[in-house]
Design a protein that fits this description.
Radius of gyration: 21 Å
Shape: elongated
Number of domains: 2
Helix content: 40-55%
Low-confidence stretches: 192-202
Distance between the termini: 42 Å
Strand content: 15-25%
Mean pLDDT: 89
Length: about 325
């Protein structure tokens, strides 16, 4: 009874009701919510505190940043589920459109960052990874002779390595500049063949495709293996990207994820455009299960600046 009274009291306010409607569909930080709602930061923070205390909203801390979304479990989640039909009504539509635009701007800002740093991304990566041969570690886990999708392929270093043992390598990225560099890299080394035709030197063909990782330009079941290498910590919705990876994998297909283990290095946001300070291993398992994967082996490899790289495997049932 007490929980129900607290929940309904929290929702008995227009601003908090609007916030609940937004956060039921999107995960946003305070600055984004200020822009969406057109209100001051102290006012938004005060209402968020009430929603969190009522169990209606969850707060996810990422170093100095905090992101908010509708509660995943508990009485507050149940009440929001029951109220979903009301929150899809037209009076909530303008808020939803502005929230969607905020998430879209976050994605576009990441794309602009990678377009800008594409030319020296390899050097930036080495500053962090040090002596770790990440492409080699990943390639050793991909089944020989498989059709492989490198999701978020960047300038093509992993594509080049995979092309030595795969039958087809598909590189997907949402940065045109990154794909341009990947194409140059592979052409310079005689390894790029359009749409998967074998290249003249016996290596796999490589198909480069511009696209968003939550709407992949691949057919269902087109790949036998898929890779997210240092990608998920940049994405606003990792579960959506993982679900798309499952769609394009054939039954029994293998997913390989390489990313930073959870850390507290705030400088990574500015230097490398990171949205998340690494991945929590238990959270990653949960994401994989939500996306329909069977989580497998997880291992850690040391990198520079006190960071560790997490390599995780999963299978599509």
């Amino acid at each position: 009874m007490t929980d129900l009274l607290r929940i309904h009291k929290a929702l008995a306010d227009e601003t908090r009701l609007r916030l609940a409607g937004i956060l039921r569909r999107f995960e946003l930080n305070v600055g984004e919510l200020v822009a969406v709602m057109g209100m001051s930061q102290p006012r938004i923070s005060r209402h968020l505190k009430i929603l969190v205390e009522a169990g209606l909203v969850d707060c996810r801390r990422e170093g100095l940043w905090a992101f908010y979304c509708a509660a995943a479990t508990g009485p507050g989640s149940e009440v929001l589920g029951i109220s979903a039909g009301f929150m899809d009504r037209p009076e909530f539509a303008a808020d939803a459109q502005r929230a969607e635009a905020a998430v879209r701007e976050r994605v576009q800002a990441t794309r602009r960052f990678f377009d800008a740093v594409a030319g020296h991304w390899r050097d930036l990566s080495r500053e962090v990874l040090g002596e770790l041969d990440l492409p080699g570690v990943i390639a050793s886990r991909v089944p020989e002779g498989a059709a492989v999708a490198d999701l978020g392929c960047g300038p093509g270093e992993l594509l080049e390595r995979l092309s030595g043992s795969a039958c087809l390598v598909i590189g997907v990225d949402n940065s045109p500049r990154m794909l341009e560099l990947a194409g140059q890299r592979l052409n310079d080394n005689g390894k790029h063949a359009p749409e998967g035709r074998a290249s003249h030197n016996g290596r796999a063909g490589v198909s480069l495709r511009l696209g968003d990782l939550t709407h992949l330009p691949l057919r269902e079941g087109e790949a036998q293996a898929a890779v997210f290498s240092m990608v998920l910590h940049h994405l606003p919705d990792p579960v959506a990207a993982l679900s798309e990876a499952r769609r394009v994998l054939c039954p029994g297909g293998r997913l390989i994820i390489a990313d930073f283990d959870r850390h507290k290095n705030e400088a990574m946001r500015v230097l490398y455009g990171d949205a998340r300070l690494g991945l929590d291993r238990q959270q990653l398992r949960t994401w994989l299960e939500e996306a329909g994967f069977m989580p497998g082996l997880m291992e850690l490899y040391p990198a520079n600046q006190g960071l560790q790289v997490l390599i995780a495997e999963a299978a599509r049932p």
